[in-house]
Amino acid sequence: MTSSADLPRVLLAGVRLTMGTAGLLAPGLVIRRLDIDPATQPGMRYPLRMFGIRTVLIGAELLTPDARRRGHAEQLAPVVHGSDTVAALLAWRRGDLPRRAGAMATAISAVNLVLSLVNLGARRRHPPRRLFRSR
Fold it and tell me: Which stretches are transmembrane (predicted)?
């Protein structure tokens, strides 16, 4: 059962797994969602696949039963999503992404950043309990 303290972590993992899988397996779809023509920008598939595998792996880490690995992923999440938000905002402001796509990418990254920060706050208030006692 997932507690309310776990909800931000699970939501963030879901977003990461969904977006990462799309970037890894269907980069053309993601490119089109960014209002970029994959036929004129075929090189976009490469960084999207790199983004995809990174995102899938860190999303999976948030769901691992190993509390130490999960805690490490939770600590790194604000750094990852903060840098993603800044990169999306810069791409939007510089015109590297079309206006709507830049706003969408910035908003998604910012929501992920907020979820990661809320998750850290919840962890500090409600640390995970051990399932088994050490002897």
Answer: 101-122
Question: What is the C-alpha to C-alpha distance for residues 67 and 118, in angstroms, rounded to an integer?
Answer: 18
Residue 134 maps to a domain: no
Number of folded domains that form the chain:
1
Burial 101-135 (b: 16+ CB within 10 A, else e): bbebbbebbbebbebbebbbebbeeeeeeeeeeee
Q: 23-59 pLDDT, tens per residue? A: 999 999 999 988 888 888 888 899 999 989 999 998 9
The continuous run of DSSP H or E covering 10 comes out as helix 7-25
Domain limits at 32?
7-125
Q: What is the rounded CA–CA span in Å between residue 98 and residue 131?
A: 49
Residues 92 and 99 sit within 8 Å (Cβ to Cβ): yes
Q: Which residue has the higher pLDDT, 123 or 53?
A: 53
Indicate whether 133 belongs to any domain. Answer: no
| pTM, full prediction | 0.78
